[in-house]
């Protein structure tokens, strides 16, 4: 099962045509609808915040996009006990706390691949592996997860 981090949703929504990560992200997000995919609630919150701060989408359009995605992706609840686990994970692997929480929630939901540009590429967190979708060496593994 896949998990998506915020940056993929931001690039997929941008559509400026100036950044090749936009097309890669759009393809991954669209194809992720067809396979079991987790998007933690934290990711949607970060997406809404980024849209506001970067003026990427109007608030109404950003909220509508999140509602569409919530209907298509599994959005597991974040449990209170996951906060402590995320804090320990952040310390152990030198991650930002919110990234560690996304990884913790994704792993608990059964995801085995977390696609993220922000975390350490190839990082193995038990049954969850973080892959940067913009590194060519990861393309075959991501492709296999999308079919």
Give a verbal description of the structure:
- The chain has 147 residues and is an alpha/beta fold.
- It has one domain (2-145): 5'-nuclease (Rossmann fold).
- 56% of the residues lie in helices and 10% in strands.
- It has 7 helices and 5 strands; from the N terminus they run E-H-H-E-H-H-H-H-E-E-E-H.
- It has helices spanning 6-14, 20-32, 41-54, 59-72, 81-93, 97-108, 139-145; strands spanning 2-4, 37-38, 113-115, 124-125, 128-131.
- The protein has a 5-stranded mixed beta sheet with strand order 2-1-3-5-4.
- A hairpin with a 2-residue loop joins strand 4 (124-125) and strand 5 (128-131).
- Helix 3 (41-54) packs antiparallel against helix 4 (59-72) and helix 5 (81-93) crosses helix 6.
- The longest helix has 14 residues, at 41-54.
- The protein is globular and about 35 Å long.
- The N and C termini lie close together (11 Å).
- The mean pLDDT is 95.
Give the SSE map:
Layout: E1 2-4, H1 6-14, H2 20-32, E2 37-38, H3 41-54, H4 59-72, H5 81-93, H6 97-108, E3 113-115, E4 124-125, E5 128-131, H7 139-145
Tally of extended strands? Answer: 5
Q: What's the alpha carbon Rg, rounded to whole Å?
A: 14 Å
- Mean pLDDT across the residues is 95
Given the helix and strand composition, which structural class is it? alpha/beta
Number of domains: 1
Q: What's the short story on this structure?
A:
By secondary structure, the protein is of the alpha/beta class.
